[in-house]
Amino acid sequence: MSTVNYIKSIQAYCSQHKLNLTANRSAVLAILHQHQGALSAYEILAKLQQQQANTKPPTVYRALDFLVQQHFVQHIESSSRYIINRQQQPFAPHPLLICTQCENVTQIGLSASLKAELEQFAAQQGFSLHSQSYEFQGLCSACQARTA
């Protein structure tokens, strides 16, 4: 899907759910959609400053806070980078496969049964899960082939 069509679909979703998708939020979302990998907030800021020279870090962080809260974007906690949620509605965080060599990030689906099993295991330990952010680190197939 083109970036323009993607932003239009997000605008329609926000309108339907009475969410305020500001110009800055759309701009940050467009930058992440155009980029194939994950970006740090300062990398996003640098790209946004090419479009709007006076943009300051709080502008990017406020936009990212909203986009993460709505699950349009996912925060990669281990590297403090952000990646667009390429999954379709409903928007939700997805487990991430992170290559420790090339830093490629792949979103994967997690079955309902595995989610339930994780929650059950946590409950048996007297633990209540709050976040559904799962990050798995290893080597992608391309990096495995290069090291073989």
From TrEMBL:
Principal subcellular localization: cytoplasm
Record keywords: Cytoplasm, DNA-binding, Iron, Metal-binding, Repressor, Transcription, Transcription regulation, Zinc
A Pfam family this chain is assigned to: FUR
SUPFAM superfamilies per the UniProt record, alphabetical: Winged helix' DNA-binding domain
UniProt keyword annotation of Signal present: no
Domain of life: Bacteria
Localization per record: Cytoplasm
CDD domains to which the protein is assigned, alphabetical: Fur_like (cd07153)
Protein family according to the UniProt entry: Belongs to the Fur family.
Assembly and interaction partners: Homodimer.
Protein name: Ferric uptake regulation protein
Organism, scientific name: Agarivorans gilvus
